[in-house]
Design a protein that fits this description.
The chain is an alpha/beta fold and 620 residues long. It folds into 3 domains: 17-227; 244-451, P-loop containing nucleotide triphosphate hydrolases (Rossmann fold), CATH 3.40.50; 456-575, no CATH class. It is built from 27 helices and 11 strands. Strands 4-7-10-3-11 form a 5-stranded parallel sheet, with helices on both faces. A hairpin with a 2-residue loop joins β1 and β2. α5 packs across α6. The termini are far apart. Residues 587-620 have low confidence and may be disordered.
């Protein structure tokens, strides 16, 4: 790609870029070249010489030299300066890149990589000096120093220095807010030079076509996403009334701040949590997920503050995300840790927030902005990790909201982390899982525990069954399984939940019956075998279940022919015969009546045989 810019100025003079937006804003309107020179001279000696290159002029092409009376084009850069737009300084920097092809060449061909992002291994004064010198730039050492300092003063990076020499950067600063202005600036400058694009041409595509994304340290995708107008939902999206089935969860969550939904498998704990997310976000689940908001930002702008700003600007009611705990999860996975980042000559380890630290910081920034947006974190299978070790000192923070808690890591200059009042935590816990330890009392008293139990009414009220036969079959299976767990509170903590018996919304009763039969054979029965092997209900419990359902297919040696079981259960559902066999009908009673007189049987002629006796069937 050929760098933009067709003029050469002085690279040995360090222009005070930070002061230029204010000087431009003070120019008369309309302004001439003479006005622009006077304004820039007020910034510093000889800055006025920059005016002929930094601005575009009405009716003056790239091949022409403006005169003192030439009118300054009120392009996107000038407009941003006059309006004191936060992007003004970055647009001044971009105008400087466009003005001098040597600056454009260094930015596009050396300081940024193939993805358009700054190359940490090249952002070094000594290396840049060598590059400029090879390109024939005089006083390359001074030029390299000035160019890297402009990255700092324009607001692209926080540099790292060794003495007076810049040897890298410690932080890349947000620039995406200038992308839309830069796309318009490129279009304005092309028009000023009589290079008008075809009607309907996209300014963003034009800017990408000349590599303008590199000037802001953005990939093409990041530039395109940032240059497009963000979704504006206006005022905060109102939530509907709290549905009745969420009322208790809502009440306790807003009272305590953190709730655990506990119950045996298949009771719909995660389903209920997602239902709450839908209410919490006013049905904008996808747009409101933190992962979605983060992915929409350039990688070096994926900070809690920027996410909070985007959420507030979108008018979201709440933002949320989900994480699943597992036995190997640690504090460093969940709260804060050290992250490896590449630097010139190797890597460095940077303290960073993990999911919980990140959502805490998002909530804190939202609160400091006065935004009404709330934050929700779902923790699936919360008891599968050692929660005390995973949360560490944040156990205190959950109870004492908005109080700083010191952590082992210093992130963004602070070792403290605050659990804000606008952050809510909903966990799910499988009470049947014996592979994990019980939650300790110190942690238990900081959560509210809501029981989510197997509910026959969910099956009977489920609207997605294709017909009555499949619903009746599902109820028969649920009832039979439930009878295995009657008799003690301990058994009820492992009872098979109703979700195993729900239809997926199949189109036909045949398909419904097949799904339910397969769930029973491939999910419910193996779970019951495991319970029986662990001694969690009485021996031969499965035999009792199969007897209860009057199934021909039988368990044998801790297993069952699942293919035969699927076929039998499916056929019995469709026939409407799933369940205990009806009791045998009692024998019919009859009233005795006198028998008819026996008819003598004459002896056959010509024989000596005795006559046959009368039948006993007619004996009263």
């Amino acid at each position: 790609m050929s760098p933009v810019g067709d003029k050469e100025g002085s690279l040995t003079r360090h222009f005070m870029l930070a002061d230029i937006p204010g000087a431009v804003a003070a120019m008369p309107q309309p302004a001439t070249l003479a006005d622009a020179q006077a304004a820039l001279d007020s910034v510093g000696n000889q800055h006025g010489a920059l005016a002929a290159r930094l601005f575009a002029f009405e009716g003056v092409s790239a091949e022409q030299t403006p005169t003192a009376a030439s009118a300054v084009l009120e392009d996107a850069m000038v407009t941003a300066c006059r309006n004191h737009d936060p992007a003004a300084l970055l647009l001044v920097w971009c105008a400087l890149v466009m003005a001098d092809h040597r600056v454009g060449d260094a930015v596009e061909n050396f300081l940024t990589g193939s993805d358009g992002k700054l190359d940490a291994s090249h952002f070094d004064g000594t290396q840049l000096e060598q590059y400029l010198s090879a390109r024939g730039v005089g006083s390359a050492d001074k030029a390299a120093s000035n160019l890297l300092r402009w990255f700092e003063t324009a607001g692209l990076v926080v540099p790292r220095r060794h003495g007076p020499t810049i040897i890298g950067f410690d932080q890349q600063l947000p620039t995406a807010h200038a992308a839309a202005g830069l796309a318009q600036l490129v279009a304005d400058r092309m028009a000023a030079h009589r290079l008008r694009p075809a009607p309907g041409a996209d300014p963003v595509a034009l800017a990408l076509g000349i590599g303008a994304n590199r000037w802001l340290n953005l990939t093409p995708g990041e530039f395109e996403a940032a240059a497009k107008p963000p979704p504006q939902l206006g005022a905060p999206t109102p939530r509907p009334a709290v549905p009745a089935h969420l009322a208790e969860l809502h009440r306790e969550l807003y009272r305590k701040g953190q709730v655990i939904l506990q119950g045996p498998p298949g009771t719909g704990k995660t389903y209920l949590a997602h239902d709450f997310v839908s209410w919490f976000t006013a049905a904008l689940d996808g747009q409101s997920r933190l992962a979605t908001l983060v992915e929409g930002l350039p990688d070096h702008e994926r900070t809690p503050r920027r996410v909070a700003e985007v959420a507030a600007n979108m008018g979201l009611a709440g933002v949320w995300d989900i994480v699943q705990f597992h036995p190997s999860l640690t504090y460093d996975d969940f709260v804060r840790s050290l992250r490896a980042e590449p630097v010139a000559g190797g890597v460095t380890f940077v303290p960073t927030n993990r999911i919980f630290g990140f959502v805490c910081e998002v909530g804190r920034h939202l609160a400091s902005m006065g935004a009404a947006v709330e934050v929700l974190l779902l923790i699936d299978e919360i008891n599968r990790a050692d929660i005390s070790k995973v949360l560490g000192e944040l156990i205190y923070g959950l109870e004492y909201r908005d109080e700083p808690v010191t952590t082992p890591y210093v992130v963004d200059g602070s070792a403290s982390l605050v659990v804000p009042k606008n952050l809510y935590v909903v966990g799910t816990m499988n009470t049947a899982d014996r592979s994990i330890a019980l939650i300790d009392y110190a942690l238990r008293r900081r959560f509210v525990y809501l029981d989510v139990t197997p509910d026959r009414g969910v099956i009977s009220g489920w609207q997605r069954f294709a017909g009555q036969a499949s619903q009746d079959g599902a109820l028969a299976l649920f009832d039979a399984a439930t009878r295995l767990f009657e008799g003690s509170a301990e058994l009820r903590t492992i009872q098979v939940g109703h979700s195993y018996f729900l239809s997926d919304g199949a189109a036909t009763v045949d398909d419904d019956a097949d799904v339910i039969a397969r769930r029973f054979a491939y999910e419910v029965v193996p779970l019951l075998f495991e319970y029986e092997a662990e001694g969690r209900f009485q021996a031969l419990g499965l035999d009792a279940l199969f007897d209860d359902l009057a199934l021909v297919t039988r368990p044998l040696d801790g297993a069952v022919n699942q293919i035969d079981l699927v076929a039998e259960v499916r056929d019995r559902i469709l026939a409407g015969t799933l369940g205990p066999a009806p009791p045998a009908a009692p024998a019919a009673t009859t009233t005795a009546v006198p028998a008819a007189p026996a008819t003598p049987v004459p002896a056959p002629a010509d024989t000596d045989e005795e006559p046959a006796p009368a039948s006993d069937d007619n004996t009263p």
